[in-house]
Amino acid sequence: MTTPEYQAPPAPTQGPSGPRASFGRRFVAALLDGIILGIVGGILTALNRKIGYADTLLSLAYFTYLEGSPSGQTIGKKALGIRVIDFGGGGSIGHGRAFIRWIGRFVSGIACLLGYFWMLWDKEKQTWHDKFANAVVVPESAYPVESWPG
């Protein structure tokens, strides 16, 4: 029986202006965030069935607060070692632009998720909601986080 050899994680995708998070890492981070929000939303709904928009408000607060923080990381992004940063300056996008990015997620999903897949052929590897907020998703190894959530 042979032991499996260590394989380094895949290299980040490269955009003209720097390294970018791969589609796979972004997808798994989104999946983790969805599971977390689903569990918390389910608990909130079970506790108080009168809140009709609890899931939407929870999602809004979660993504706006965490992606707008100096770390630019949700729990899923932290687990996958990626973060959201300002396209021009490399810093935090702030809570206002994180809110715009959250709204942009709905637009990205309207046309058969085309806005999410857009990063596969975009030269800067941006989705539509990244473009709305003038942001990029990058590997934490290339753009280290000082503290989480910041």
Describe the structure in your own words.
The chain is mainly alpha-helical and 150 residues long. It has one domain (18-41, 52-139). The protein contains 6 helices and 4 strands. A hairpin with a 2-residue loop joins strand 1 (13-15) and strand 2. Helix 1 (23-47) packs across helix 2 and helix 2 (54-68) crosses helix 4 (94-110). 32% of the residues are buried.
Oligomeric category: single chain
- The number of helical segments is 6
Q: What is the topology, as strand order, of the major beta sheet?
A: 1-2
Number of domains: 1
Instruction: Report how far the terminal alpha carbons are from each other.
Output: 46 Å
Compute the average pLDDT. 90
Biggest sheet overview:
2 strands, antiparallel
- The share of residues in extended strands comes to 5-15%
Structural class: mainly alpha
Describe what is shown at a glance.
By secondary structure, the protein is mainly alpha-helical. It is 49% helix and 11% strand.
Secondary structure blueprint with pairings:
Elements: E1 13-15, E2 18-20, H1 23-47, H2 54-68, H3 75-80, E3 82-86, H4 94-110, H5 114-117, H6 128-133, E4 135-139
Antiparallel strand pairs: 1-2, 3-4
What attributes does this structure have?
mainly alpha; 4 strands; two-stranded antiparallel sheet; about 150 residues
